[in-house]
Amino acid sequence: MPSASSDSSALISGNRQRHNGGDGLFPPFARFEKSYVFSPILVLNFLHLRNAVFAFSTLDARTYANHVSHELEPVLIRQAIEFLRRSHPWFLRPSYDYAGGEIDLVVAGETGPVLLIQAKGTLPPQGARLTERLADRIRDGIGQVEKFRALEVTEQEAIASAAVGRPVAVADIRHGILARSCFGAPEIFDPALGIARITLPLLSLALGEMRARGELVDIDALLLHLEGIELRYFVEADPRWEEGAISLAGRHLHVPLFKYDQDMVDMVRAQSWACSFIEEPNGGRT
User: Which residues, other chains included, contact 7 with Cβ-Cβ below 8 Å and sequence gap of 6+?
Assistant: First the structure.
C-alpha cells in the first residue's frame, strides 16, 4: 500500500508516463524510477498548496470530490466567521436554507441592516484558465443574489427576518460575495450590481481598522470600510500594463506585462496578517 509521502510526491512530480501539469501547474519535481530531479528555484515558485490541491483534483477526481471539495467552502466560511466573531458580537448564521435557495452566511447586528453572503472563491487561482473557472463560480454567486432579489419583497423580508429572528425590511438587506483572495469576474466590480466584494484579507483589514478607530460597528460601516480599503490599495498598488521585450532565437518579441507596486502589496499582506490576530487582556494573541 503506498505511503502518505509517496501519495504526496505523486501530486507534485511529473514523469514521461503521467502528466500532472496544465492550468497553471508545473510540477517542480521530475520523478524517475529510483530518484527525483528538481530545481530549488522551481520548488519556491511552484510548490504551493493550491497547486498540489489542483493536481489532486486532476489525478484522483473521485477521492477529491469525496474528501476535499465539499470541505473547501465550509472552511472558507468558518474562517470568515472567526474574523467576525473575534471583532464584534455579530449575529452569525452559516448555511441558512430557504425554499428555493441557500444563504452561505448571514451576518447582522442587534438592529439595522442584514448582510447575506454567498461564498464562492474557495482557492486562489493560478493561471488564466483557473481564473476563468473562479469567474464562473463568482457568476454563480451573482446569479444566486439576483434570484433572491427577484422574489417578492414580502418574501425577501420574510427570509431575512426568519434568518436573524427579528423584523427586517427589504431596504435593510445587503448582499455580498465572499472569496478567499480574488474574484476573476470583472462584472462583480460594477457599482450598479450592488454586491459587496469580500475577501479574507479585506475582511481582516476592515475589521482591524474599525477596532483601531473604536468605531461603532454595523453592517453598513463594515461594507464602507471594505470598499474604501479595496479602492485605496488599488490606487496605491498602481496596476498598469507595460510593453516588454524578450530575445528568442535572434528575434525580439514584444509582450504585454502586468505591473504593480510589489512592495506595497507585500505591506498590505503583512497588515492583513497582523489584523487577523487580536490582543488578549493577558498579553496573548488569538
Answer: none
Cell of 172: 435593510
Q: Which long-range contacts (CB under 8 A, 24 or more apart) does 90-94 make?
A: 91/164, 91/165, 93/163, 93/164
**The predicted structure's pLDDT at residue 63:** 78
pTM for this one? Answer: 0.77
260-274 mean pLDDT: 88
Handedness of CA 106, 107, 111, 113 (dihedral sign): negative
| 222 within 8 A of 206, measured Cβ to Cβ | yes
User: Which residues are within 8 A (CB) of 97 and not within 5 positions of it... i.e. 6 or more apart?
Assistant: none
> In 3-state terms, what secondary structure has residue 213?
helix
Q: Give me the amino acid identity at 172.
A: D
pLDDT in tens, 236-252: 999 999 998 888 888 88
- Residue 31 confidence class, pLDDT cut points 50, 70, 90: low
205-214: long-range contacts at Cβ-Cβ below 8 A with a sequence spacing of 24 or more?
205/229, 205/268, 205/271, 205/272, 205/275, 207/83, 207/84, 207/87, 207/88, 207/275, 208/271, 208/274, 208/275, 208/276, 209/275, 210/87, 211/87, 211/278
Side chain identity at 277, as an amino acid letter? Answer: F
Report the side by side order of strands in the sheet with 91-98: 91-98, 101-108, 114-121, 173-179, 196-199
Cβ(14)–Cβ(38) below 8 Å: no
Backbone angles phi, psi at 75, to 5 degrees: -65, -45
What lies within 8 Å, CB to CB, of 221 at 6+ separation is 210, 215
Residue with cell 438587506: 173
In the prediction, which pLDDT does 175 show? 97
Q: Residue 281: which pLDDT band, with cuts at 50, 70 and 90?
A: very low
HEC string of 214-247 equals: CCCCCHHHHHHHHHHHHHHHHHHHCCEEEEEEEE
Which grid cell sits at 24? Answer: 497553471
